Every structure is written in structure tokens, then in C-alpha cells.
Amino acid sequence: MCQRVRSLHTVAPFATASSSAMGCRTHRRHALGLQRGTTFVSVGAIGENELSRLRESWTVPQTLRHTIAATRESWVRSRSLVTPERVAARPPAPGGRRIAFLVYRGNPQCGGQGVYTRHLTRELVRLGHSVEVFSGPPWPELDEGVGFTPVSGLDLYREPDPFRWPAPREFRDLADVGEFAIMLTGGFGEPWAFARRVRRLLASRRADFDIIHDNQCMGSGVLSLFHEGWPLLETLHHPITVDRSIALDHATTFWQRYSTRRWYGFLRMQVRVVRQLDAVLTVSHNSKSDIHEQMGVDLGRLTVVPVGVDHDVFRPYDDVVKKPGRLMVTTSSDVAMKGLVPLLEALAKLRTERDIDLVVIGRPKSDGRVAATIERLGLGDVVTTISGVSDEALARLYGEAQVAIVPSLYEGFSLPAIEAMSCAVPVVATTGGALPEVVGTSGETGLLVEPNDPDALVEAIRRLLDDAGLRERLGANARERVMHRFTWGVTARGTAACYESILRGGALPDSVDFT
Questions:
Q1: Are 394 and 41 a contacting pair, CB within 8 Å?
Q2: pLDDT at 252
Q3: Which of 171, 339, 343, 486 is the least crowded, having the fewest Cβ atoms under 10 Å away?
Q4: Element (H, E) at 447
Q5: At 311, is the secondary structure helix, strand, or coil?
Q6: Each residue's pLDDT tens digit, 22-51
């Protein structure tokens, strides 16, 4: 089985475990000239967390000499990069649809949009549909049968030289110039530029597809495709207005507030676009309500289809032994919205009464709020970050934990929650955003507490650590809930039902039918 790999930065002063320690290998397939079947992933709320990470990753070069040297290195690196070849999609089965699937950042290293793209397109092909993914760099990782067309761009935020200055020869059209100009002014221009590029690619291919499915680009070019008569389904995982609001709430200086507003300037375009589209899919009823209230999308044009988990990988393993006092959290970025600081404060209280440790799957910054909190609370000896683990290795780590925690202040969904639940690990989650909708009834399929409340986390974690019977019951019920509601097969069937409604001119279903 192909596995995706979680490539996450480690942060001092945490203890760390490397991919070699976990015995992880990277598998490659040659068909695309890209990595297929191996995904470097940042998980959590779908996609938007990477935007926050990018916004906070910019640093001012120390000297002009350093700037010139780094730019020259970037230009050399650009010359060595090869755009992958187009791959034809498998033809549809009788009755299947032909889908142009758009994603401006396709690689799961850049957030959950890439995870969603890979697994959903695979399951749509299994249902008999033909799917061709149009993606910008970093390139996606796709399964056999899924088509691929590269949408070349500047990739201004690539590693190891994010916020780079491209060489003059890299500029090919106005989309490149505009994207670079937006970056120079502190904004994020990828969605706008990608939409212009993909519109140009699709102009001559109207006869090749029945419908476009856009995965949260919402650029002006996507709206132009809709106005030109393309049937179109838009996936909006959650309103990024929430990310902006939380980031602004935690900004402490005028410059931080200004740069945050400028970075999220693309939201004006996305709100304008999504308000005019006829069919918008989101992943939870909470997100549906927030999109309606914060972005002005009519409820009649919104439908709910949750995302899934690979339940054949994320499962209990008979040879995995629980480690007493082991807690686990998965976080996609070092931002206030993920709630790691309240969890660390709860951990500091719990360690005074028992032996306990916390495994963090994530990418906190070495100079960020999480590292500072660990130092302030003296938790460096009980917090470990893990990097470079495959899905199976991650599932085994879940299996070692007695409790998994999702401490987020807000989630439009939560992949970490359903991954832990699929592994039959009892979950403590907050009531932030869609988490109650995902986790289920508190006391039956998990425990729910108020967000940003360390004392409530202490009480819930202590309750589970002290009651083996409760842990076993909640874990078993959680696994059953995932198998019924949160598999990629369910996601694909619900999405395909939306395609049919659009193509037949009918109303969108209110939500996926779980029966």
C-alpha cells in the first residue's frame, strides 16, 4: 500500500525522533516524474494553516551580500527544477462523469487541500468517474488512474527559499508579474495567479469535461470560468475569515496587525467570487453556518460533505502496546488557533501529580510561542516532536497513546480528530468550531471541553487516564463513528451526488446521506 509521509520540522528544546528512527521509507513511482503515493503533509484544518505558517516565516536578510547570495542560489535551484509531464486520466466507466479538479497548491506538504485532493480523486475514479487534476507547484501526489496537468507558476514560497526573488527568465506572463508584485507588498497572490493560468489552459478543453471542481482557489479566473458556462462545484473547507480574526486578535503590535491584514488581502477576492457561485461544498454544518454568516453565501447554495480518513491504515494494531501516561496531539502550525499553549499549561499541571509525557506531531517554530511556553513551564523533558513518519507509523504512535487531544480554538473540521478516533484512541477535544460535530456526543464518542481552558483540559485528561474502562468504551465508539461517517468512500459518494445535482439543474442536497 502506498503511504504518505509526514515531514515536519522539529523544534528545540523538544526531544525529537527522526524518520530513520521510525523506520520510514520514501516510495516513489516514476509515472509522473513526481512523488506518487508519498505525501509530505501538514495536517489539521484544511489548507489555511499553511497560509499562517507562510505569513509568519518571513525573515529579513541580515545584509545586502546575504540577499544577493541567496537570490543567486535560488536562481540556480530554479534552473534544476523540471516540470512534470501531463498524465492522461483513465476514461470514465459507463455513466461516469469527466471532472476537471483544480487545486492551486497540490502537495499535501502545503496543507490538507493536498490530502483532500489525493484521496477524493482516487475514490472518485473507483466510482467510475474520470478525474484530471490541474495543480500548481508544489506538485500533487496522486494514485493510478487519476490524470494530471501541471499549471506552472513561480512557486514563490517553496522550500528552502520562501519569499524568493525569481530570475527574470522565470516571468512568462502577467500572472507571474502580478503574483510577484502582490508578494512584494506583503500579500498572497497564488490563488489569483493560479486561477488566471488554469482558465487559459481550460479555454480549449471545454469538450473534454462535464464539470469543474475547484478546491478552495476561488480566484477571479474561476469566476470567469463559471460565467463562461462551465458547471462548477466549489469546495470551501472553512471560512478563512476565522483564521484572519484569530490572527488579528493575537497580534500585539501595529505592524503585526497591518501585515496580517495585508497577507489576508486575497480574502476580498475570494468572498466576491464565492458569493456568485451556484454550488459550494463545505465539510461541516458549522462551517456551512460560518460561511453563510461571515462570507455572505446563501444557505441554499451550500452543501455539507465531510472529509474522510484512510481507515485501513488508521486502525488499532494488535502488536502496539499502550504507554502509561502518553498523550498525543497533532498540529499543523504554530498559530494561536491550534490551542497548543493551553494544552501545555494543562500538561504542566498534570505532571505535578503523575508521570506523563506528550508527543507532538507538528511543526512549531523554534522561536515561536509554543517553544517559549515549553521553556517557561520547564516541559522540555516531557514533550517530544516527531518528524518524517508514515501514515502507518503515525497510526502506531496513536496506538501507544492513552489519550489524544485536539485543543484547537476553532476547526472547520479536524483530520487529527478522525485519525485518532479511527485508531480507537479516546479523544479530548474542545467545542471550537466543528469539533463537536466531528467528535460526537461528549461522554459517548469522546470528551468535549471549552476552548482555551487549561483547567478543563486537565479535568478531562485526568478523567480518562484514571478510567481504563472509559478509555476503552470511548475508543471503540469513536472507531465505529468514523467507519459510518468519515471514510473517503463516503466523501466521494457525497461529492458525486453534488455533481449530478449541478449537471441536472437540481438543488444541492443539504448534506451527504450517511445511510
A1: no
A2: 86
A3: 171
A4: strand 447-449
A5: coil
A6: 333 233 233 333 333 333 333 333 344 555
